[in-house]
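ARCHIVE CARD
CATEGORY: sequence design from structure
SOURCE FIELD: tokenized fold
FIELD CONTENT:
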């Protein structure tokens, strides 16, 4: 007998039929002899609906009231699931995050969990109940309800699993697990049997939406393996997200992540003097604009070229700042391309293998794609390319590294529990 935390996303509890289906899955785990804590998201579309209601009253709703409002979505689905379970004679009780004692910091709309009280949970479990907990919420020191940011139910599940020292944290969703890349773009993408926390963090930060980033950070911090599974199919083991040390069969690369809406801005020929980079970036950050990649090259005329990328939404604002800066500093030119995309190859195997970057660049070159900027880290190589080449680029790299040939049967699932 083990303690299992299961989390069901919005599409898994999107209708009453689906809630009944979830109830049967919970009962199956219970019948196998496990203690089960279930975390639920709001029914599909509900959180968006609530946010729209708030914004219809004004552009910036009071954050405390916003949290009071959006946390109700999960309260509905938790009670419906508990009712469905009780109807099938499976004793269940639902609780909101504040009722359980999920304590957070004071930052409404994006609070972080600080502590979880486990007494109530242990008591209910020992009395044989399935405990259903509303995801995405907690309370601050004052007792006010807080929410954890979009996708926050994943984080609730991982935090509960860690606090209860659960055996596993199962995240049920509407896809089969984590793929080598978005299967809507590359239908041949392979389902990964496993991926390391670090790789998953890179994938999540670059837009793979399967897991909220904070949930992966938390799982890694507490050494809590997460298994991502489909609610709607029984016949696969999903993807295990776990520690690198537990992965025996290491792949060279695990996936390709990408983001479309990027822009690139270069200011060329500024005086090459100490502090210039801080000065330029200071102007951008003072305007509250985030930037992503940065590159700088000295030219032979005692000047330097400074290039960076950012999300396209900030492009117009940044361009006018840079044009002003260009005049002030006597820059040679400000050059931009507002229609670029970022493509990243991710894999812990890169740490100990050479030639990954050259293989990636060759694959892009072979299909005529011009790389505009490159950054690398220990486990990631990112390039900026024209947005209209993105799909071609993903496909070229996916094929070059044979990511379409990773069959799940050949990959081992090896976690010892
Ligand atoms: N219901 C919230 C959202 O849609 C939290 C979650 O589903 O994880 O973001
Ligand atoms: Mg989600």
């Amino acid at each position: 007998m083990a303690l299992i935390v299961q989390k069901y996303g919005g599409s898994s509890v999107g209708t009453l039929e689906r809630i009944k289906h979830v109830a049967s899955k919970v009962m199956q785990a219970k019948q196998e002899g496990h203690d089960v804590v279930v975390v639920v998201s709001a029914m599909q579309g509900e959180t968006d609906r609530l946010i729209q209601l708030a914004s219809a009253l004004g552009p910036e709703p009071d954050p405390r009231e916003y949290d009071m409002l959006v946390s109700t979505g999960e309260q509905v689905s938790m009670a419906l699931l508990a009712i469905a379970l009780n109807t099938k004679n499976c004793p269940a009780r639902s609780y909101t995050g504040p009722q359980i004692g999920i304590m957070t910091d004071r930052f409404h709309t994006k609070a972080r969990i600080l502590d979880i009280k486990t007494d109530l949970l242990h008591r209910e479990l020992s009395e044989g109940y399935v405990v259903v907990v509303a995801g995405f919420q907690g309370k601050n020191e004052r007792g006010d309800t807080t929410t954890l940011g979009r996708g926050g139910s994943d984080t609730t599940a991982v935090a509960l699993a860690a606090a209860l020292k659960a055996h596993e944290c199962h995240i049920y969703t509407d896809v089969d697990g984590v793929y080598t890349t978005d299967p809507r773009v590359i239908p041949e993408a392979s389902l990964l049997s496993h991926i390391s926390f670090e790789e998953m963090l890179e994938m999540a930060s670059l837009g793979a939406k399967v897991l909220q980033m904070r949930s992966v950070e938390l799982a890694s911090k507490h050494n809590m393996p997460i298994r991502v599974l489909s609610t709607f199919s029984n016949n696969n083991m999903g993807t295990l997200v776990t520690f690198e040390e537990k992965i025996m069969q290491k792949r060279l690369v695990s996936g390709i992540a990408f983001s479309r809406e990027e822009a690139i801005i270069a200011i060329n020929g500024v005086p090459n003097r100490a502090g210039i980079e801080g000065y330029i970036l200071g102007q951008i950050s003072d305007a509250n604009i985030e930037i992503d990649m940065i590159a700088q090259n000295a030219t032979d005329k005692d000047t330097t070229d400074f290039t960076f990328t950012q999300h396209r939404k900030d492009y117009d604002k940044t361009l006018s700042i840079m044009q002003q800066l260009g005049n002030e500093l006597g820059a040679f030119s400000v050059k931009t391309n507002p229609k670029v995309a970022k493509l990243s190859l991710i894999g812990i195997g890169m740490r100990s293998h050479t030639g990954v970057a050259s293989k990636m660049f060759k694959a892009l070159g072979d299909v005529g794609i011009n790389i505009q900027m490159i950054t690398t880290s220990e486990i990631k190589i990112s390039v900026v390319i024209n947005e209209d080449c993105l799909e071609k680029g993903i496909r070229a790299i996916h094929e070059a590294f044979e990511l379409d040939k990773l069959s799940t049967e050949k990959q081992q699932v090896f976690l010892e529990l």
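CARD ANNOTATION: The CA atoms of residues 92 and 129 lie 5 Å apart. The radius of gyration is 24 Å.
SHELF: design records, drawer C
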